[in-house]
């Protein structure tokens, strides 16, 4: 059994003061850093959008942030502009132990498709390459922590379970956005997919 810690999107824009701040997003950083020492591999994910990304409300006339639209690949929440490639908001939280990471996987770089999951874009079919990386390293067990519980952590955990990994989400080391009940739905959806929600 080879175990990896997947640290999801602990970036300035998802922390207090950021463009898409998740309440308490920064609180988890010290314990996440400590947890890194217990794993064979550590992988960080980084939300990484080009300016003018199609998931930004600013790109849709009259659309309010946090409203929904129908995209060719399905329903999509429209977000405030966030995690723009190379911007300070896209940087990892300054206290996160980035040096411990074996791999940093970026996602959301395709202008036409959002990517919550670390494994597939929101069309649920375009891979990021993370599955191949983990499987070729013989990694079988994943623990996930980070932001946000109900979006990127949720989609990553459900995809990982479907791909055959043994997945644990440490909810004490995650924080959520909770849009219209999305947090409760995510917790039950993950459990249904076979994720251990700890
Ligand atoms: C995320 C919304 C938009 C996340 C990323 O990391 O959960 N949420 N982009
Ligand atoms: Zn994003």
Please characterize this protein's 3D structure.
This protein is α/β, with parallel strands linked by helices. Helix content is 20%, strand content 23%. The protein has helices spanning 29-36, 130-136, 149-162, 182-192; strands at residues 3-8, 41-47, 68-71, 74-77, 103-107, 141-147, 166-175, 196-197. The protein has a 6-stranded parallel β-sheet. Strands 3-4 form a two-stranded antiparallel sheet. The mean pLDDT is 98. Bound molecules: pyrazine-2-carboxylic acid and zinc ion. Zinc ion binds next to loops.
In short:
The chain is 20% helix and 23% strand. The protein is built from four helices and eight strands.
Largest sheet: 6 strands, parallel
Name the beta content range: 15-25%
Q: What is the tally of helical segments?
A: 4
Low-confidence stretches: none
Structural class: alpha/beta
Mean pLDDT, to the nearest integer, reads 98
**Cα-to-Cα separation, first versus last residue:** 19 Å
Q: Going across the major beta sheet, what is the strand order?
A: 5-2-1-6-7-8
- Helical content stands at 10-25%
The bound ligands are: pyrazine-2-carboxylic acid, zinc ion
- Total strand count, please? 8
Spatial shape: globular
Radius of gyration: 16 Å
- H/E series, N to C? EHEEEEHEHEHE
What brief labels describe this structure?
single chain, 198 residues, alpha/beta, six-stranded parallel beta sheet, two-stranded antiparallel ribbon, 4 helices, 23% strand, binds pyrazine-2-carboxylic acid, binds zinc ion
Write the layout of secondary structure elements.
Layout: E1 3-8, H1 29-36, E2 41-47, E3 68-71, E4 74-77, E5 103-107, H2 130-136, E6 141-147, H3 149-162, E7 166-175, H4 182-192, E8 196-197
Parallel strand pairs: 1-2, 1-6, 2-5, 6-7, 7-8
Antiparallel strand pairs: 3-4
Helix pairs in contact: 3-4
The structure holds pyrazine-2-carboxylic acid (VGL) and zinc ion.
């Amino acid at each position: 059994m080879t175990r990896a810690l997947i640290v999801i999107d602990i970036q300035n824009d998802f922390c207090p003061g950021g463009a898409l701040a998740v309440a308490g997003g920064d609180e988890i950083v010290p314990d996440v850093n400590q947890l890194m020492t217990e794993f064979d591999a550590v992988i960080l994910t980084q939300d990484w959008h080009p300016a003018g990304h199609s998931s930004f409300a600013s790109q849709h006339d009259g659309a309010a942030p946090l409203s929904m639209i129908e995209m060719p690949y399905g329903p999509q929440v429209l977000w405030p502009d966030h995690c723009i490639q190379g911007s300070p908001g896209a940087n990892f939280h300054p206290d996160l132990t980035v040096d411990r990471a074996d791999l940093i996987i970026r996602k959301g770089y395709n202008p036409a498709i959002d990517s919550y999951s670390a494994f597939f874009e929101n069309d649920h079919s375009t891979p990021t390459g993370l599955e191949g990386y983990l499987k070729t390293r013989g990694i079988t067990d994943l623990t996930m922590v980070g932001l946000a519980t109900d979006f990127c952590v949720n989609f990553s955990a459900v995809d990982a379970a479907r791909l055959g990994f043994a997945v644990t989400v440490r909810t004490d080391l995650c924080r959520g956005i909770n849009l219209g009940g999305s947090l409760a739905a995510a917790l039950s959806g993950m459990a249904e997919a076979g994720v251990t929600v700890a």
